[in-house]
Amino acid sequence: MKMLVTGATGNLGTKIIKKLLETVPAENLAVSVRKPEKAEDLRAQGVEVRQGDFDQPDSLDKAFAGIDRLLLISADGDNETRILQHTQAVKAAVKANVKFIAYTSVVNAQESELFLAPTHKATEQAIMDTGIPYAFLRNNWYFENEASSIQGVLAGAPWVTSAENGKVGWALQQDYAEAAAAVLAGEGHENKIYELSGPLLSQAEFAKEVGEVFGKEVQVQQVDDQAYTGFMKEAGVPDFLLPMLVDIQKGIREGALEVASDDFEKLLGRSLTPIRKGIIELKNA
User: Fold this and answer.
1) Whole-angstrom Cα distance, residue 103 to residue 109?
2) Distance CA 150, CA 158 (A)
3) I need a surface site. Which of 88, 117, 190, 242 has the fewest CB within 10 A?
4) Model confidence over 236-279: pLDDT tens digits?
5) Among 140, 124, 120, which Cα is nearest to 132's?
């Protein structure tokens, strides 16, 4: 049985492949990457490296040929671009007669008002419309997304947020990677939806955990979106990223990431990495 992971040279994809190689023979694994030269380390381990670009449908037809189980890792970019890219990938999977598609989505994708949700809603629907058995890995939020805030706290800065009391199900990217690997290489995941959320915490609760890990009191500043934008700009965030960061805070404030679930533990067969251990790993990264 041949398995393929797209975007395998990205942060998440790299972790997924590494986990798969612990249990799956390298000859059963393939990756689809835009720039194969960046995957020479995988080729050296016996993984088949294929060139595949979401913007070049013909390349995907070749990349997916002979693949039984596909893990489609969502691409980066604006919603319109990603919907087109993902739709082309799904069409290529149909042409290649792929037998199973796993897709990294976002929590509560079909009902969510989060600005990221339209891409995932459209992609999930496109996959379901094919009739191919699927699994949707609806990821919540990465610990890694808070790395800069944690570093700021260590430097004496306050924890600034406009998310108010909205809660988030943070987890380490490594935990998401292991869950994805379990689904791609495992059995019994056909037509399943997994809401992958860690313990739900508000920004203030998360900041308190950070403070307790490092033995310092963290000042939390609750501001409005305009003030948050100004703070992020002063912190050096590029202008083009500011609207996205504000939209994330808005989504959290409105409960878009407040999704409780124990699906993570079911897939991992263990407890999630504890919050404080995750914070320490981010500090040392």
Assistant:
1) 12
2) 10
3) 190
4) 889 998 999 999 999 999 999 999 999 999 999 999 999 999 98
5) 124
DSSP SS3 for 56: strand
Residue 117 pLDDT class (50, 70, 90 cuts): very high
Q: CA 65 to CA 44: how far, in whole Å?
A: 21
Beta bridge partners of 29: 3
In this structure, what token pair is assigned to residue 16?
């997924």
Contact 228, 170 (CB under 8 A): no
86 with 116: CB under 8 angstroms?
A: no
Q: Whose CA is closest to 256, among 44, 41, 109, 63?
A: 109
Q: What is the mean pLDDT of residues 151-167?
A: 93
Helix axes 117-130, 79-95, angle to 10 degrees: 20
Angstrom CA distances, 189 to 11, 134, 283, 285, stand at 24, 8, 35, 33
